[in-house]
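User: I'm putting together notes for a lab meeting next week and I want to include a structural view of one of the chains we've been expressing. I don't have a solved structure, so I'd like a prediction I can at least talk through. The sequence is below, exactly as it appears in our construct file.
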Amino acid sequence: LAHGNQYPDLRGRATLQTLPRLAYHRLLTAEETRILTDGYTLMRTIEHYIQVMHYQQTYTMPSDPAALALLAGRLGFKNTDALIHRYDEHRKAIRAIYLRRVGNEPVSEPQPQVVQHIARLGADYVDSFSSDEIQQHADLARGVNEQTPAILDAQPLSQNTWRVTVVGYDYPGELSIICGLFFVFGFNILDGNAFTYEPLPEAPSESRPKLNRFDPTRRLPPRRKPSSSPEPDTRRKIVDVFTVKSILSAPPDDSIWQSYTEDLHHLLRMMRTGQRREARGELAVRVGQMFKSVPGKMSPLLPIEIEIDNEADEQYTILRIDTPDTIGFLYEFTNALALTHTYIARTIVQSVGSRAQDILHVTDENNNKITSPEKQRELRAAVLLIKHFTHLLPHSPNPSAALLHFREFLAQLFQRPNWFDEIASIEKPDVLNALARLLGVSDFLWEDFLRMQYANLFPVVTDVAALSKSKPKSELESELTQALEENKVGEIQYQDWRAALNAFKDRELFRVDMRHILGLTKEFDDFSEELTDLAEVTISAALAHCESELRAVHGDPLLENGQPCGLSLLALGKCGGRELGFASDIELMLVYAGAGQTNGTKPVSTAEYFEQLVRSIVSTWQTRQEGIFQIDLRLRPYGKAGSMAVSFESFKNYYSPEGAAWAYERQALVKMRPVTGDAQLSDELCRLRDVYVYESGPFDKIAMRAMRERQVRHLVTGGTFNAKFSPGGLVDVEYLIQGLQINHGTQDHAVRLTNIREAMSALHTAGILSDDDHIRLRKAHTFLRWLIDSLRVVRGNSKDVTMPPFGSDEFIFLARRLRYESDAEHLREDLTRYVADVQEINVRLLRREG
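Assistant: Thanks for the context. Below is the predicted structure for the 850-residue chain, given as structure tokens.
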């Protein structure tokens, strides 16, 4: 009516014929025309069926449930809810256009940016906000650019409650960033609406003439030339509006939103430049810190009801969430959706009593509905597991790392073909708790150890009960024998015995380390015993198989008199003392009986035979990380310059009092212990060890002090404390005990022991260590071993055992790893006390010995 005089072609036409003409004259936008056409078609169809049902002209939707269900069925809807949902969608959309064009709004043409803004957001958006709010959102959207990827407006509602509007560019996983920052800044989300621009429709071909959809035989006139207005920003944007309440004891002032905005910009720029993992990790660090500051407010494992509806909306999958309302839930939930590459287009956050009842419109990463049963199961699993896992983070040494690593753990889990069958074990509280502790130990443990051994991680961690018991050495030997016979470890078949041996070694090393990290080995000695058993079993098997291969080529090694040439595999260092720890080397020396040659078709000298044997063992032994469970032959005579295999004569000549060995090299023989080989040769080597170590003069304190000075000078960073080499560190304990053993072992054979703990006890029994000195040294040794082990686990470097600065995040994480919980000051006090004890006892007893 308003434009009939100006445009005669609008007169006297039916509604569906008039709508395209209104669009042609730019009295409606193309988006409005589509909405009105679709809505009118549905409304007229519903009206027709209602009138047929009641045999009268009625325009009221039936209120009787049975009648409503009958109407839904006749219209082809799955159920009543689907019909009502679709009806409300169209009603709201039509109402919004009505209000904008002829309702309470001025009749004048709305601003172009507002029209463009509304056209990208849909009917629910217009129905959710007033015209003034929509105008504000459109104005904010105009200010978004590459330098300002999001704009925030926060309006106080009370002393500690705000209405926060965030308008910005759309990034995958952005809602989890926004919600995570709310939690980091101490806010709980009470309610909210989150909208995302719809994708722009594909532009029609300019070369193809447009036809009136209701009169295809009639060509439409050319469109009017558009005005010279600026080119609109076509990128997708988000409009998120939340009511948030501070959970902090002292509510912040309005200035906090400037800090929030700066952090949001920083994280979004990282997302834009492809650093999504880093952005999530940086946020997870702060989320983890916040978890520790709100004790008692984080709920335990809680039920979550998730309804997945693909009938209620043509474009989106609807997720309806019902769960007890907890702080940080929306961050956890959106984090899970980001993990499964689920795109969130629309979110309604609401609390009903003490429960969160949220509704999300989502698609997959290709903007399609989530209809695949497999994808739906994955989505449900991710939501449940991440939420439950998040509430166990306070038990983790590093909550932020644990959360980030758990996301990647789930991503790998979903790639397993039978993950759905395995998920039940993951949901167990003890398994989730174990994962929280494991994945929060260090980035190294995940990046270079757990993730690389995922095939070992999953079966081990999902059966925590099986970790509670250690395996005796005989059981390891039996399992390895079977694995090498079949070239099979667990369910995996390997190409040869070498691959099977390394797989077995890695699996069992992983199991022992997990027992240790989870606290199932109560004493450090237990952990060392298990590692040493594994080293001996696997090294012995490698030696036997490598020697069998060599004998097949060269025959048996014989002495010049035709007798068999025996060998003895000796353990030294921590392995010799059965004191292996995390990232310990396996220090070995192979000694053979003497000169001769093999008796095969391709004979070689015994020296060449055993040299090849050692090289074969070393090449067989594969390690996933340098320095961790790695064979070390450097303690052999002449070190790297010497032969890899040592003849009996070379051993005698080198270590005898007149030989070339340095004093510290003879001192190292205190820990020499045969692992396998010829019993007679091993006994003779032990007899010579006792002669060279215990019967060839007193402990050389001057040589020891010179060695310690070199270690401090070359291995300790200035201004730091190295738990192994600094004065008062572990080496001072070891050298002191070895010095006492050497000085008193001449008369008292009971102190000739390779294990330092057993040697301490023997020295105490002999009266060489007083009760007080024995207790203090034993406690200091235990503390330093745990400390060094924890530093290696966190860093993945066997050499870097320097204490982090006090007060740093690394120091705090170290304290938690050492079970000091949050009392980092207690760790600092213990370190000071034990180091002082070691220094005082060391100086006093060595002075007495001289």
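A couple of points you could mention at the meeting. Residues 524-554 form the longest helix (31 residues). The longest strand covers residues 187-196.

User: Perfect, that's what I needed.
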